[in-house]
Design goal:
Blueprint: E1 7-10, E2 13-16, H1 21-26, E3 31-32, E4 36-41, H2 47-59, E5 65-69, H3 74-84, H4 91-97, E6 100-104, H5 114-130, E7 135-139, H6 142-147, H7 151-168, E8 171-177, H8 191-194, E9 197-206, E10 209-219, E11 224-225, E12 229-234, E13 237-242, E14 248-249
Parallel strand pairs: 4-8, 4-9, 5-6, 5-7, 7-8
Antiparallel strand pairs: 1-2, 2-3, 9-10, 10-12, 11-14, 12-13
């Protein structure tokens, strides 16, 4: 199968590069193609910006991508990206050309019926297919958690999303806010089995400052480096780098 410009191969695994050197180092070149990856992070740790940066890096080399925004409007998303990354001056051009397809979906009522979820997921799938997107970002599952009536219903919904995206074959990065430190996990979210890969962002106190760090917790079908990497939001985009020796993890099955 022919590879797109944003993929690389290690052995027999085709990968979708994030375009962020430190992150690709951790991923041995990128996300395994066709996998569903959870980007879990503390509030304010840069989840949305990192997800958008990955989309942007692929779009700027001609790979069609879709960004589904559930937490904010399309206009607000672009405004926030422009404020954080003022040197990325071609974002609006890529959006206008349709290489980056931004789909805004407002959800303001409790989700109690599977049919509502089915309609929503079909909309997401259709938007992904509209420009033959090779990479999809959804921001964020946190909204679903707030609107769905119980843990069991939330679990069913996330399983349904993951299954549908696997069927389409698009590589995806899906964000969710991490629970407080005294809560072990998001209620109803069994990320170990639901997602192929998990990237964790944390806010870490360093003196009088709060630093952002990222690590890979899981990556199905591939080895990965589990060391913490510093995450810095710069005017030209997100930069990630390690401040300690890498630790290689075995393949997650």
């Amino acid at each position: 199968m022919a590879r797109s410009a944003g993929t690389s191969e290690v052995g027999q695994i085709a990968r979708v590069s994030s375009g962020i050197k430190g992150l690709d180092d951790m991923l041995y070149g990128g996300f395994p193609e066709g996998t569903q990856n959870l980007l879990m992070g503390d509030s304010g740790s840069g989840k949305t910006l990192l997800a958008f940066q990955i989309i942007y890096n692929n779009a700027r080399i001609g790979i069609p991508c879709t960004f589904i925004t559930l937490d904010q409007t399309r206009q607000d998303l672009l405004k926030n990206v422009a404020a954080a990354f003022p040197l990325l001056r071609d974002v609006n051009t890529l959006v206008q050309k349709g290489v980056i397809n931004i789909y805004e979906k407002e959800i303001d009522a409790e989700i109690r019926d599977r049919s509502i979820i089915t309609v929503l997921i079909n909309e997401i799938i259709n938007e992904t297919k509209a420009n033959d997107s090779k990479l999809l970002a959804i921001d964020s599952l946190s909204l679903f958690r707030a609107l769905i009536e119980n843990d069991r219903a939330f679990t069913r919904m996330i399983n349904f999303i993951a299954e549908k995206l696997h069927d389409v074959g698009t590589t995806s990065v899906i964000t969710i806010e991490a629970p407080p430190n005294d809560v072990p996990k998001v209620p109803g979210l069994f990320e170990e089995s639901m997602f192929d890969g998990i990237l964790r962002l944390r806010n870490v106190p360093r003196g009088d400052m709060i630093a952002h760090v990222g690590s890979i917790i899981k990556l199905r079908y591939s080895k990965f480096k589990s060391s913490q990497y510093n995450v810095e939001i710069t005017p030209a985009g997100i930069v990630m780098g390690r401040d300690q020796p890498d630790t290689e993890r075995r393949i997650s099955l």
